[in-house]
Amino acid sequence: MDSEADIFKTYEKMHSTVKTASEIATSLNVKNLVLYHASDNDLKNRKRLYTEEAKQYFNGNIYVPDDLDVIKL
Predict the structure, then answer these.
(1) What is the total count of domains within the chain?
(2) Whole-angstrom Cα distance, residue 7 to residue 11?
(3) What pLDDT, in 10s, does the model give residues 31-72?
(4) DSSP track, 27-62
(5) pTM (2 decimals)?
(6) Which one of 25, 31, 40, 62 is separated from 73 by 20 to 30 angstroms, measured CA to CA?
(7) In this structure, are residues 19 and 57 in contact, taking their beta carbons and an 8 Å threshold?
């Protein structure tokens, strides 16, 4: 999440935050955004938190899969 960018040093690791990924997806007019390879410090709430943040910057379909989930588009 954007609020954790400094904690996880996302940009130093060439990763994006939920906010940045959502903004890029919006600018490219994509229909589906899959957020994965995420931090695991709050697995119980990860889907909800990531989806809520992404919805602020992206209007398409948002998927936050668990490991081994299959996504049919």
Answers:
(1) 1
(2) 11
(3) 999 998 766 677 888 899 999 999 999 999 999 998 899 988
(4) HTT-SEEE--S---TTHHHHHHHHHHHHHTT--SEE
(5) 0.77
(6) 40
(7) yes
pLDDT at 37: 72
H helix or E strand, kind and range, residue 24 = helix 18-27
Q: Residue 11's Cα: distance from chain center in Å?
A: 14
Q: Is residue 71 part of a domain?
A: no
Distance (Å, rounded) from C-alpha 34 to C-alpha 24? 12
Does residue 28 sit within a domain? yes
Residue 70 lies inside a defined structural domain of this protein: no
CB contact at 8 A, 45 and 4: no
Pairwise CA distance, residues 38 & 35, whole Å: 7
Domain limits for position 50: 2-63
Rounded Cα gap, residues 18 and 12, in angstroms: 16
